[in-house]
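User: Some background: our group keeps a shared notebook of sequences we're curious about, and every so often someone picks one and asks for a predicted structure to add to the entry. Today it's my turn. The entry only has the sequence so far, pasted here. Could you supply the structure so I can complete it?
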Amino acid sequence: MAGLAVEGRGITIAYGGRIALRECDVAVPLGAVTALVGPNGSGKSSLLSAIAGLVPLTSGALTVLGRRPGQNGLAARVAYVLQSTPANESLPVTVREVVTMARFARRGLFGRLTAADRRIVDEALEQLEVANLADRHLRELSGGQRQRVLVAQGLAQDADLLLLDEPVTGLDLTSRERILTVVEQVRDSGGSVVVATHDLGDAERADHVMLLAGCVIAAGAPAEVITTEHLRRAYGGRPFHDESAGTIAHVDEHLHHDSPAGRLR
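Assistant: Of course. Here's the predicted structure to add to the notebook entry:
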């Protein structure tokens, strides 16, 4: 690889007595979309949290954009977008206020916003097609609209690395396609994106895939990783070949497979 946004050697991540990832080597390329796939509890969210500096390693070494997670100055360069939750809905804030919060990573909580900050916020609202909702409160929005607002917040941070934890799960088609298009735009503008997903169709659209199941089962180009053998190892023999879609699909309580149209390449 020409360069790495994230590199880990022998990393183990544990919560209490449970190990989420054990002795993994990870490599996330710069300027690419990397999809993290795997069954529930495979370590996808744990890896994202470690990259964001929110969860410490039990062992091993991890570098993000050439620095250790949590180092001063790195937080502003890494944006982490979680799924919308009921807590988001209850916040008494407008869409514009939510997206503007992203600029605090660079200005500080009490820093004065500049004209450039406001322009970046406006552009993020436009990209996620929520500018017309800017003065509405989160509780007034649909689930898809709220998720687009959260992605707009991540975008407005103007980070070098964008982390997305299942950003399109359960969303309407409009919100889903808008978010996936923005992921492509971030990559095309030179940014690096890591997306955790339950959907193999989404993974096939990425540039790079990491298949997890408590460790790294396989990593590389989608065609090299999303194979019957690898999926059987990750999902315990549950994958099957979908002849109608011409690709691999599998069974999981939160998984579905869409026809891989419009690849992020």
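Suggested note for the entry: Residues 201 and 260 are 5 Å apart (CA to CA). Residues 239-247, 250-265 have pLDDT under 50 and may be disordered.
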